[in-house]
Specification:
With 293 residues, this protein is an alpha+beta fold. The chain is 25% helix and 23% strand. Strand 5 and strand 6 form a beta hairpin. The chain binds biotin.
Length: 293
């Protein structure tokens, strides 16, 4: 079984092994709790950290911890995942010491149908941090893929257990490709994935990036609970890879739908106006790449 470092000793953790960055011989930094704490400005998120040099999935561990009453804001952080999971039962490529693999425990006082807003919020916080910290032009593809051009740089997996009318506990898992080189991705992802390092040509300090994501997430979370989702939805639309008012093709529960993208509603559903004028709300589905800019 994976053993975490004791979160109460996070300031004194001995640094984890520092491997050579593939391809360059240069050392990469370990993303230890102490490294993250040096940059963290969030008040609560990321202050209790369960850190694993290797784990199956940070989301699985965070769901266990949430069920065991770990408080809101606790973070599961790993240098490597052996069974990282993505949406739609896909796997998440998790090369050691290269990416950010993190899962945050939330206990939001919102109705269950609004839970997808928290994954939208994570995607906005990630895209914003990539743009501000790493100088990229990240965009979001509904529901919460973060892209550079057509290539995926980050993804978000929100999960909860049980079926209550209110969200009791939720885990938001964040995967960001940071210091991967082309050879760190499996061949099947070579043409569709990218990383900060591939885009910028230099390694990025993962602790600085994750601290920025957590701070942006916490700020938006407080605002959502206080004021509702309107500002978040506008922020999401401003970062959308598909412009509001533009043509869209979506694979949804009822097959392919073509029309105009009119935005996302307060439950996170994609709203499409078909050429016949009918409005369709899609709670889940996939934007078909044919019309991506
Ligand atoms: C997706 O785009 O399909 C979502 C990817 C989410 C990956 C992250 S990595 C940290 C956390 N643990 C997991 O097993 N998955 C999420």
């Amino acid at each position: 079984m994976n053993q975490p470092l004791d979160p109460s000793r996070r300031h004194t953790d001995a640094p984890a092994p520092i491997p050579d960055a593939p391809g360059t011989g240069a050392a990469t930094d370990a993303l230890t709790p102490a490294a993250l704490q040096r940059h963290l400005r969030a008040a609560v998120f990321g202050h209790r950290i369960f850190y694993y040099p290797t784990i199956d999935s940070t989301n699985d561990r965070a769901l266990e911890l949430a069920a065991a009453e770990e408080p809101e804001g606790s973070l599961v952080l790993a240098e490597e995942q052996t069974a990282g999971r993505g949406r739609r039962e896909r796997s998440w490529s998790s090369a050691p010491y290269a990416g950010i693999y993190a899962s945050l425990i939330l206990r939001p006082a919102i109705a269950a149908p609004r839970a997808p807003l928290l994954t939208f919020m994570a995607a906005v916080a990630v895209a914003d941090a990539l743009n501000e910290v790493a100088g990229l032009r990240a965009r979001i593809k509904w529901p919460n893929d973060v892209l550079i051009g057509r290539r995926k740089i980050a993804g978000v997996l929100g999960e909860m257990r049980g079926s209550h009318p209110e969200v009791r506990e939720m885990v938001v898992g964040i995967g960001i490709n940071v210091n991967q080189t082309e050879t760190d991705f499996p061949a099947t992802l070579a043409s569709i994935a990218t990383s900060v390092r591939i885009e910028r040509g230099v390694p990025q300090d993962r602790a600085v990036l994750l601290a920025s994501v957590l701070e942006g997430f916490e700020r938006r979370y407080a605002r959502l609970l206080r004021d509702g989702p309107a500002t978040l939805l506008r922020e999401w639309e401003a970062l959308s890879s598909m412009p509001v008012g533009g043509a869209i093709a979506v694979g949804g529960p009822a097959g392919r739908l073509d029309g105009e993208f009119t935005g996302i509603d307060e439950d996170g559903s994609l709203v499409v106006r078909t050429h016949e004028g009918a409005l369709h709300r899609l709670p889940f589905g996939e934007i078909l790449d044919t019309l991506l800019p």
